[in-house]
Amino acid sequence: MTTTVRPRDPAELAVLLPYQLGYHPGPSVVVTVLHDKRLGLVQRHDLHTDPDECRDAARQAMAIVAREAATAVIVIAHEDGVGDSDPLSEAMLEAAVAEGLHVHERVVVRDGRWYSPDCRQSCCPEGGQPLPRPEDVPAIAAFVHAGVAPLPSREAIVAGVLPERDEERARSVSLRLASLGYTGSTQIFGGGPTRPPVHWLDRGEDVLAWWTLLLDPRPDAMAVELFGDEALAWLAASLHDVIWRDALMGILCPGAMPMAESVGPETDAAMLAARWCPWLTDDDGPDASPQQWHEEVLAVRSRLIELTRLLPSGATPPVLTLVAHLAWWVGDGTIAGICLQRALEIDPDHRLAELMLRLLSAGVRPWDRPGGPVAGEAA
Hints:
Layout: H1 10-21, E1 28-35, E2 38-46, H2 51-67, E3 72-78, H3 86-98, E4 103-110, E5 113-115, E6 129-130, H4 141-145, H5 154-161, H6 167-179, H7 204-214, H8 229-238, H9 242-252, H10 265-273, H11 294-310, H12 317-329, H13 333-346, H14 351-361
Parallel strand pairs: 3-4
Antiparallel strand pairs: 1-2, 1-3, 4-5, 5-6
């Protein structure tokens, strides 16, 4: 997200970060970019103790910060035990110096208190000072008024993003997929098809109609759970066609992929399937910010996630990758990373998910224009 709030000191920033990330960071080091007094990119990194792992993580983090043209960085370490964050936190400082970056402040947060390990004055009591209460931090007022509260952990976000599978429906859909030549759990949803897979164009009009229903963000759209097993199977099978998958990704995320500007039957069909998505017909065209249509984009993303709940596990990586790209496009690196990691847990050979996760980890964004989304999370 693009941040407009301005905490007054590092302690307020430490209280604000869970609201930005959407969850309490837990044991980690959080690096925040500063553009003068404006907050920019936010990266969260799990703690490491191995020196080589710390150096690698820090070098990658500061290389991303350097590309952001930061004027300074703030490093906030969250730890459960005294000194747990030191190896990674200190590696971050060394990497920042190597990149010529100014570290505005380094803070350690533990047990609801904070202190600066680099402070040479005697103003802080032993064990640090208490963090301010969220209600006492003016920068959080916008989140509180919007009813936004951080979840207790990243795992809580994972549970919310990836709902429990409906195993009965998934088994039924799996039988439908098998009848089309798609079985199991690898790139063709199995150890190989039982026969040459039926191409989705054999049912092109029906599949296009089902995709149109699926990508409908309107409040009265047909619930995904009401789709028949045949429709669910064809939706999953169609994403095995890389050209069709890329066409959907390009059309749903204007400006993020060259495919969106290409001409061809798949692109035309994808545009038709997404015709109820208002950000595609906005008068401002593909240069309109996705934040203008946040609720509608979120509705489509939720419907795609609901699709994964009804499919056999092996059929979900292409859908999860599509969800990840949509989340990445609006600047939600946390959701994108969760979906890509789950896709690779299911299919370690899913090349697009692996590539996207590498790009996400490297701080690359689907677009790079003024006012675009700038906050994310290191995977």
